[in-house]
Amino acid sequence: MGAKMTRQRAAEFGAAWNTHNAELVASFFTDDGAYHASVGPDALGKSYFGKDEIRRGVQAFFDRFPDGRFENLKVAVAGDIGTFEWDFVATDAGGRLVRTAGCDLLEFVGDKVSKKNAFRKQRG
User: Fold this and answer.
1) How far apart are CA 77 and CA 3, in angstroms?
2) In the CATH hierarchy, which top-level class contains the domain 7-120?
């Protein structure tokens, strides 16, 4: 029987985003995985496919938010799907600390992430 995603492993994936290590984050994805960022030109934000593109997309996120961190992570796993609910905290261009609520819809193959689709609340 193959490996399965557990709540603990999913939480480790969530925690990896606070390390600002794109290689580590990408290591949780399947080779043909997809990462749909919460912003970008496409209907699903900016999309990255395959580990190399995902690594670049994650690094671009870290470059955009060098002090960004996820807080209050709530993790749910049900078979081959899961969710994250979180607060993202970062300094904006004006030097103010901004807190944004959001969530990710996740799909798994074995103990790897095959898709991460990010959504966030926008104030305005």
Assistant:
1) 14
2) alpha beta
d(CA 44, CA 41): 8
Domain-wise residue ranges, the chain:
7-120
CB 36 within 8 A of CB 117: yes
Question: Which tokens belong to 15?
Answer: 């925690």
Which phi and psi angles does 110 have, rounded to 5°? 60, -130
Q: Which residues of the chain have pLDDT under 50?
A: none
Q: Is 0.85 topped by the overall pTM? A: yes
Q: Which two tokens stand for residue 124?
A: 């305005």
- The answer to whether 76 touches 96, Cβ cutoff 8 Å, is no
